[in-house]
Specification:
The chain is of the alpha/beta class and about 400 residues long. It is about 40% helix and about 15% strand. A 6-stranded parallel β-sheet has the order 3-2-1-4-5-6, sandwiched between helices. A 3-stranded antiparallel β-sheet has the order 7-8-9, covered by helices on one side. A two-stranded antiparallel sheet has the order 10-11. Helix 7 crosses helix 8. The longest helix has 24 residues.
Protein backbone atom coordinates (compact mmCIF):
# COMPACT_ATOMS: atom_id res chain seq x y z
CA UNK A 1 0.00 0.00 0.00
CA UNK A 2 1.39 3.38 -0.98
CA UNK A 3 1.69 5.76 2.00
CA UNK A 4 -1.08 8.16 0.94
CA UNK A 5 -3.56 5.46 -0.07
CA UNK A 6 -6.98 6.49 1.23
CA UNK A 7 -6.16 10.22 1.19
CA UNK A 8 -8.38 12.34 -1.08
CA UNK A 9 -7.03 15.59 -2.47
CA UNK A 10 -9.35 18.07 -4.19
CA UNK A 11 -7.32 20.57 -6.19
CA UNK A 12 -8.57 23.70 -7.94
CA UNK A 13 -5.44 24.05 -9.97
CA UNK A 14 -3.92 25.28 -13.17
CA UNK A 15 -0.53 25.98 -14.73
CA UNK A 16 2.51 24.44 -13.02
CA UNK A 17 3.13 25.01 -9.30
CA UNK A 18 0.15 23.23 -7.76
CA UNK A 19 -0.22 20.56 -10.48
CA UNK A 20 3.45 19.68 -9.91
CA UNK A 21 2.72 19.13 -6.22
CA UNK A 22 -0.49 17.15 -6.64
CA UNK A 23 1.04 14.83 -9.24
CA UNK A 24 3.62 13.81 -6.68
CA UNK A 25 0.95 13.36 -4.00
CA UNK A 26 -0.91 11.11 -6.45
CA UNK A 27 2.24 9.07 -7.00
CA UNK A 28 2.45 8.56 -3.25
CA UNK A 29 -1.01 7.00 -3.40
CA UNK A 30 -3.44 9.90 -2.91
CA UNK A 31 -6.59 10.17 -4.95
CA UNK A 32 -6.23 13.55 -6.64
CA UNK A 33 -9.40 15.10 -8.11
CA UNK A 34 -8.46 17.95 -10.40
CA UNK A 35 -11.24 20.53 -10.71
CA UNK A 36 -11.23 22.26 -14.11
CA UNK A 37 -13.41 24.71 -15.98
CA UNK A 38 -15.80 23.19 -18.51
CA UNK A 39 -14.74 23.63 -22.11
CA UNK A 40 -11.18 24.84 -21.71
CA UNK A 41 -9.98 23.28 -18.47
CA UNK A 42 -6.57 23.97 -17.00
CA UNK A 43 -5.03 26.51 -19.37
CA UNK A 44 -1.79 24.50 -19.32
CA UNK A 45 -3.65 22.11 -21.63
CA UNK A 46 -3.13 24.79 -24.30
CA UNK A 47 0.40 25.97 -23.48
CA UNK A 48 1.88 24.12 -26.42
CA UNK A 49 1.24 21.27 -28.84
CA UNK A 50 4.51 19.43 -28.40
CA UNK A 51 3.17 15.94 -27.68
CA UNK A 52 1.72 13.91 -30.52
CA UNK A 53 -1.70 14.98 -31.78
CA UNK A 54 -1.55 18.24 -29.88
CA UNK A 55 -1.27 17.32 -26.18
CA UNK A 56 0.59 19.97 -24.22
CA UNK A 57 3.99 18.92 -22.93
CA UNK A 58 3.31 20.92 -19.76
CA UNK A 59 0.01 19.16 -19.14
CA UNK A 60 1.41 15.73 -19.95
CA UNK A 61 4.28 16.25 -17.51
CA UNK A 62 2.18 17.53 -14.61
CA UNK A 63 -1.09 15.64 -14.57
CA UNK A 64 -0.71 11.89 -14.77
CA UNK A 65 -2.44 9.76 -12.11
CA UNK A 66 -5.22 12.34 -11.53
CA UNK A 67 -8.96 12.44 -12.15
CA UNK A 68 -10.46 15.37 -14.07
CA UNK A 69 -13.75 16.88 -12.88
CA UNK A 70 -15.24 19.85 -14.73
CA UNK A 71 -17.43 22.30 -12.79
CA UNK A 72 -18.59 25.84 -13.46
CA UNK A 73 -18.53 27.20 -9.93
CA UNK A 74 -20.77 30.12 -10.90
CA UNK A 75 -23.66 27.64 -11.25
CA UNK A 76 -25.17 26.99 -7.78
CA UNK A 77 -25.75 23.28 -8.34
CA UNK A 78 -22.15 22.81 -9.50
CA UNK A 79 -20.86 24.72 -6.50
CA UNK A 80 -23.01 22.59 -4.20
CA UNK A 81 -21.50 19.48 -5.75
CA UNK A 82 -18.00 20.83 -5.06
CA UNK A 83 -18.94 21.51 -1.43
CA UNK A 84 -20.08 17.89 -1.07
CA UNK A 85 -16.79 16.73 -2.53
CA UNK A 86 -14.77 18.94 -0.18
CA UNK A 87 -16.74 17.63 2.80
CA UNK A 88 -15.25 14.19 2.15
CA UNK A 89 -11.73 15.36 1.33
CA UNK A 90 -8.58 15.20 3.44
CA UNK A 91 -6.76 17.94 1.52
CA UNK A 92 -8.02 20.88 -0.56
CA UNK A 93 -5.58 23.04 -2.49
CA UNK A 94 -5.95 25.95 -4.89
CA UNK A 95 -3.81 28.28 -6.97
CA UNK A 96 -6.52 30.44 -8.50
CA UNK A 97 -5.81 34.08 -9.36
CA UNK A 98 -5.23 36.60 -6.56
CA UNK A 99 -8.35 36.93 -4.41
CA UNK A 100 -10.45 34.51 -6.48
CA UNK A 101 -10.60 31.72 -3.91
CA UNK A 102 -11.51 34.12 -1.10
CA UNK A 103 -14.37 35.55 -3.17
CA UNK A 104 -15.67 32.02 -3.65
CA UNK A 105 -15.20 31.06 -0.01
CA UNK A 106 -12.62 28.49 -1.06
CA UNK A 107 -9.50 29.95 0.53
CA UNK A 108 -7.68 27.83 3.10
CA UNK A 109 -8.72 29.82 6.17
CA UNK A 110 -12.42 29.73 5.25
CA UNK A 111 -12.36 26.02 4.45
CA UNK A 112 -10.60 25.05 7.68
CA UNK A 113 -13.01 27.30 9.59
CA UNK A 114 -15.82 25.15 8.25
CA UNK A 115 -13.92 21.83 8.48
CA UNK A 116 -11.44 22.04 11.36
CA UNK A 117 -9.76 18.73 10.47
CA UNK A 118 -9.08 19.68 6.86
CA UNK A 119 -5.65 20.35 5.40
CA UNK A 120 -6.08 23.31 3.03
CA UNK A 121 -3.39 25.03 0.98
CA UNK A 122 -3.38 28.33 -0.88
CA UNK A 123 -0.61 28.73 -3.46
CA UNK A 124 0.13 32.23 -4.70
CA UNK A 125 2.88 34.26 -6.24
CA UNK A 126 3.56 36.71 -3.43
CA UNK A 127 1.44 35.63 -0.47
CA UNK A 128 -1.92 36.80 0.93
CA UNK A 129 -0.70 40.04 2.54
CA UNK A 130 1.66 42.86 1.66
CA UNK A 131 1.74 45.31 -1.23
CA UNK A 132 2.21 42.58 -3.88
CA UNK A 133 -0.68 40.38 -2.71
CA UNK A 134 -2.95 41.24 -5.68
CA UNK A 135 -0.26 41.00 -8.35
CA UNK A 136 -0.43 38.30 -10.97
CA UNK A 137 2.65 36.14 -10.68
CA UNK A 138 4.00 33.98 -13.46
CA UNK A 139 7.15 31.96 -13.05
CA UNK A 140 9.52 34.26 -14.96
CA UNK A 141 8.19 37.31 -13.09
CA UNK A 142 8.92 35.70 -9.74
CA UNK A 143 12.35 34.62 -10.97
CA UNK A 144 12.95 38.30 -11.69
CA UNK A 145 11.61 39.58 -8.36
CA UNK A 146 13.57 36.99 -6.38
CA UNK A 147 16.94 37.97 -7.87
CA UNK A 148 17.36 34.57 -9.54
CA UNK A 149 17.63 36.16 -12.98
CA UNK A 150 20.21 38.62 -11.64
CA UNK A 151 22.59 35.79 -10.70
CA UNK A 152 21.89 33.56 -13.72
CA UNK A 153 23.46 33.91 -17.13
CA UNK A 154 26.74 35.27 -18.44
CA UNK A 155 28.59 38.38 -17.24
CA UNK A 156 27.18 40.18 -20.29
CA UNK A 157 23.58 38.96 -20.19
CA UNK A 158 21.24 37.83 -17.40
CA UNK A 159 18.99 34.83 -18.04
CA UNK A 160 16.07 33.07 -16.44
CA UNK A 161 16.39 29.43 -15.45
CA UNK A 162 15.61 27.09 -18.32
CA UNK A 163 12.70 25.52 -16.46
CA UNK A 164 9.90 26.87 -14.24
CA UNK A 165 12.08 27.25 -11.15
CA UNK A 166 9.61 29.36 -9.15
CA UNK A 167 6.74 27.00 -9.85
CA UNK A 168 8.74 23.88 -9.04
CA UNK A 169 10.13 25.45 -5.87
CA UNK A 170 6.66 26.38 -4.63
CA UNK A 171 5.25 22.99 -5.63
CA UNK A 172 8.01 21.24 -3.70
CA UNK A 173 7.06 23.13 -0.54
CA UNK A 174 3.38 22.30 -1.09
CA UNK A 175 4.33 18.61 -1.03
CA UNK A 176 6.35 19.12 2.15
CA UNK A 177 3.57 21.12 3.81
CA UNK A 178 0.83 18.64 2.95
CA UNK A 179 2.81 15.64 4.15
CA UNK A 180 3.67 17.37 7.44
CA UNK A 181 0.07 18.51 7.93
CA UNK A 182 -1.29 15.02 7.23
CA UNK A 183 1.10 13.58 9.81
CA UNK A 184 -0.14 16.10 12.38
CA UNK A 185 -3.73 15.44 11.34
CA UNK A 186 -3.24 11.71 11.93
CA UNK A 187 -1.76 12.34 15.37
CA UNK A 188 -4.11 15.01 16.68
CA UNK A 189 -7.00 15.41 14.26
CA UNK A 190 -6.06 19.05 13.74
CA UNK A 191 -6.27 20.51 10.26
CA UNK A 192 -4.19 23.34 8.87
CA UNK A 193 -4.68 26.41 6.67
CA UNK A 194 -1.37 26.76 4.85
CA UNK A 195 0.05 29.46 2.61
CA UNK A 196 2.78 28.78 0.06
CA UNK A 197 4.15 31.68 -2.01
CA UNK A 198 6.42 31.33 -5.01
CA UNK A 199 8.51 34.32 -3.92
CA UNK A 200 9.06 32.78 -0.49
CA UNK A 201 10.12 29.48 -2.04
CA UNK A 202 12.63 31.03 -4.44
CA UNK A 203 13.95 33.33 -1.70
CA UNK A 204 14.80 30.21 0.30
CA UNK A 205 16.49 28.64 -2.72
CA UNK A 206 18.48 31.86 -3.16
CA UNK A 207 20.02 31.39 0.30
CA UNK A 208 23.67 31.36 -0.81
CA UNK A 209 23.47 34.58 -2.88
CA UNK A 210 21.36 36.21 -0.14
CA UNK A 211 23.91 35.42 2.57
CA UNK A 212 26.79 36.52 0.37
CA UNK A 213 25.28 39.91 -0.50
CA UNK A 214 23.95 40.45 3.04
CA UNK A 215 27.40 40.10 4.56
CA UNK A 216 29.62 41.56 1.85
CA UNK A 217 27.39 44.29 0.44
CA UNK A 218 28.52 43.28 -3.04
CA UNK A 219 26.24 41.82 -5.70
CA UNK A 220 27.37 38.46 -7.05
CA UNK A 221 28.73 38.51 -10.57
CA UNK A 222 27.09 36.24 -13.11
CA UNK A 223 29.51 33.52 -14.09
CA UNK A 224 27.78 31.43 -16.75
CA UNK A 225 28.35 27.79 -15.93
CA UNK A 226 31.54 28.42 -13.97
CA UNK A 227 31.50 28.61 -10.17
CA UNK A 228 31.78 32.10 -8.66
CA UNK A 229 34.15 31.06 -5.88
CA UNK A 230 35.95 27.95 -7.18
CA UNK A 231 38.39 27.52 -10.08
CA UNK A 232 38.69 25.59 -12.26
CA UNK A 233 34.98 24.75 -12.35
CA UNK A 234 33.76 25.14 -15.91
CA UNK A 235 33.18 23.36 -19.21
CA UNK A 236 36.11 22.72 -21.54
CA UNK A 237 36.02 21.48 -25.12
CA UNK A 238 37.89 18.29 -26.03
CA UNK A 239 39.58 17.44 -29.32
CA UNK A 240 36.36 15.59 -30.27
CA UNK A 241 34.28 18.75 -29.83
CA UNK A 242 32.53 17.57 -26.64
CA UNK A 243 32.12 19.90 -23.68
CA UNK A 244 33.17 18.36 -20.39
CA UNK A 245 32.54 20.14 -17.10
CA UNK A 246 35.42 19.73 -14.67
CA UNK A 247 34.93 20.59 -11.00
CA UNK A 248 37.92 20.92 -8.69
CA UNK A 249 36.91 21.26 -5.02
CA UNK A 250 40.27 21.75 -3.29
CA UNK A 251 43.97 22.19 -3.83
CA UNK A 252 44.69 18.48 -3.57
CA UNK A 253 42.35 17.82 -6.48
CA UNK A 254 44.00 20.62 -8.42
CA UNK A 255 47.36 18.92 -7.95
CA UNK A 256 45.99 15.58 -9.19
CA UNK A 257 44.32 17.27 -12.18
CA UNK A 258 47.45 19.19 -13.18
CA UNK A 259 49.84 16.28 -12.69
CA UNK A 260 47.46 13.72 -14.21
CA UNK A 261 45.18 14.34 -17.20
CA UNK A 262 46.46 17.88 -17.90
CA UNK A 263 50.11 16.74 -17.83
CA UNK A 264 51.06 20.19 -16.48
CA UNK A 265 52.84 19.62 -13.13
CA UNK A 266 54.34 23.07 -13.46
CA UNK A 267 50.93 24.58 -12.64
CA UNK A 268 51.04 23.16 -9.12
CA UNK A 269 54.09 25.12 -8.00
CA UNK A 270 53.17 28.35 -9.80
CA UNK A 271 51.96 30.86 -7.16
CA UNK A 272 49.30 32.08 -9.60
CA UNK A 273 47.58 28.66 -9.41
CA UNK A 274 48.79 27.11 -6.15
CA UNK A 275 45.62 27.82 -4.11
CA UNK A 276 41.95 28.14 -4.95
CA UNK A 277 41.98 31.81 -3.97
CA UNK A 278 44.87 32.39 -6.37
CA UNK A 279 43.14 30.48 -9.15
CA UNK A 280 39.95 32.51 -8.66
CA UNK A 281 41.96 35.76 -8.80
CA UNK A 282 43.57 34.48 -11.98
CA UNK A 283 40.49 32.75 -13.34
CA UNK A 284 41.10 33.69 -16.99
CA UNK A 285 44.65 32.29 -16.90
CA UNK A 286 43.50 29.17 -15.00
CA UNK A 287 40.73 28.45 -17.48
CA UNK A 288 43.04 29.10 -20.43
CA UNK A 289 45.60 26.61 -19.10
CA UNK A 290 42.98 23.94 -18.50
CA UNK A 291 41.28 24.57 -21.86
CA UNK A 292 44.58 24.35 -23.71
CA UNK A 293 45.40 20.97 -22.18
CA UNK A 294 41.87 19.57 -22.56
CA UNK A 295 41.71 20.69 -26.18
CA UNK A 296 44.52 18.32 -27.05
CA UNK A 297 42.76 15.27 -25.58
CA UNK A 298 40.09 12.99 -27.03
CA UNK A 299 36.98 12.82 -24.87
CA UNK A 300 37.52 9.21 -23.82
CA UNK A 301 41.15 9.94 -22.97
CA UNK A 302 40.21 12.93 -20.84
CA UNK A 303 37.46 11.10 -18.99
CA UNK A 304 39.73 8.14 -18.28
CA UNK A 305 42.35 10.51 -16.88
CA UNK A 306 39.80 12.31 -14.73
CA UNK A 307 38.51 8.99 -13.38
CA UNK A 308 42.03 7.84 -12.54
CA UNK A 309 42.77 11.13 -10.77
CA UNK A 310 39.47 11.12 -8.85
CA UNK A 311 38.28 14.40 -10.35
CA UNK A 312 34.56 15.11 -10.69
CA UNK A 313 33.35 15.73 -14.22
CA UNK A 314 30.22 15.62 -16.36
CA UNK A 315 29.22 15.93 -19.98
CA UNK A 316 27.33 19.14 -20.83
CA UNK A 317 24.34 17.31 -22.27
CA UNK A 318 21.50 18.48 -24.45
CA UNK A 319 17.95 17.42 -23.61
CA UNK A 320 18.22 14.87 -26.41
CA UNK A 321 21.31 13.50 -24.65
CA UNK A 322 19.32 13.27 -21.43
CA UNK A 323 16.64 11.23 -23.19
CA UNK A 324 19.36 8.78 -24.25
CA UNK A 325 21.34 8.95 -20.98
CA UNK A 326 22.93 5.57 -20.25
CA UNK A 327 22.48 5.92 -16.49
CA UNK A 328 18.73 6.51 -16.81
CA UNK A 329 18.41 3.65 -19.27
CA UNK A 330 20.35 1.26 -17.05
CA UNK A 331 18.08 2.05 -14.09
CA UNK A 332 14.84 1.82 -16.06
CA UNK A 333 13.92 5.43 -15.35
CA UNK A 334 11.71 5.85 -18.44
CA UNK A 335 8.19 4.48 -18.67
CA UNK A 336 5.16 4.85 -20.92
CA UNK A 337 2.07 6.50 -19.46
CA UNK A 338 -1.38 6.57 -21.03
CA UNK A 339 -2.89 9.84 -22.23
CA UNK A 340 -5.76 11.09 -24.41
CA UNK A 341 -3.41 10.85 -27.41
CA UNK A 342 -1.93 7.45 -26.58
CA UNK A 343 1.18 6.33 -24.67
CA UNK A 344 3.77 8.99 -23.85
CA UNK A 345 7.25 8.46 -22.47
CA UNK A 346 7.87 10.03 -19.07
CA UNK A 347 10.27 9.67 -16.17
CA UNK A 348 9.41 7.37 -13.28
CA UNK A 349 8.42 8.85 -9.90
CA UNK A 350 11.47 10.15 -8.04
CA UNK A 351 10.24 8.55 -4.79
CA UNK A 352 9.33 4.87 -5.02
CA UNK A 353 8.72 2.46 -2.16
CA UNK A 354 10.39 -0.96 -2.28
CA UNK A 355 7.93 -3.69 -3.12
CA UNK A 356 5.21 -1.25 -4.23
CA UNK A 357 4.40 -0.82 -7.91
CA UNK A 358 4.86 2.76 -9.06
CA UNK A 359 1.65 4.76 -9.51
CA UNK A 360 1.59 5.56 -13.23
CA UNK A 361 -2.04 6.17 -14.15
CA UNK A 362 -2.90 8.03 -17.37
CA UNK A 363 -2.99 11.76 -18.03
CA UNK A 364 -6.75 12.52 -17.93
CA UNK A 365 -8.88 13.93 -20.70
CA UNK A 366 -10.80 17.06 -19.76
CA UNK A 367 -13.77 16.08 -17.61
CA UNK A 368 -13.05 12.38 -18.06
CA UNK A 369 -14.18 11.47 -14.54
CA UNK A 370 -16.90 14.07 -14.01
CA UNK A 371 -19.98 11.85 -14.05
CA UNK A 372 -18.45 9.16 -11.85
CA UNK A 373 -17.27 11.66 -9.24
CA UNK A 374 -20.60 13.48 -9.16
CA UNK A 375 -22.35 10.15 -8.73
CA UNK A 376 -20.07 9.39 -5.78
CA UNK A 377 -21.16 12.58 -3.99
CA UNK A 378 -24.81 11.73 -4.43
CA UNK A 379 -25.99 13.34 -7.66
CA UNK A 380 -28.43 11.24 -9.63
CA UNK A 381 -28.35 10.78 -13.39
CA UNK A 382 -31.01 13.45 -13.88
CA UNK A 383 -29.13 16.05 -11.86
CA UNK A 384 -25.93 15.32 -13.76
CA UNK A 385 -27.82 15.65 -17.06
CA UNK A 386 -29.20 19.03 -15.97
CA UNK A 387 -25.68 20.27 -15.16
CA UNK A 388 -24.45 19.10 -18.54
CA UNK A 389 -27.36 20.76 -20.33
CA UNK A 390 -26.56 24.01 -18.52
CA UNK A 391 -22.89 23.81 -19.55
CA UNK A 392 -21.89 23.59 -15.88
CA UNK A 393 -19.88 20.39 -16.40
Amino acid sequence: MLPLAGVTVVSLEHAVALPFATRHLAELGARVIKVERPGRGDFARDYDRAVRDGLSAHFSWLNRSKESLTLDLKVPAARAALDRLIAGADVVAQNLGPGAAARLGLDAATLVGRQPGLVAVDVSGYGPTGPYRARKAYDMLVQAESGLIAVTGSPEQPAKAGFAAGDVAAGSYVIEAVLAALLRQARSGAGAALQIAMLDALTEWMGYPVQTVEHTGTEMARSGISHPSIAPYDAYRTADGDEVLIGVQNDGEWRRLAEGPLARPDLVADPAFATNQARVRNRARTDAAVADAVGGLRTAELEAGLEAAGIAYARVNSVADLLAHPQLAARGRWVEVGSPVGPVRQSRPVVEFPGEPARLDPVPALGEHTERILGEVGLCAGEIAELRAAGAI
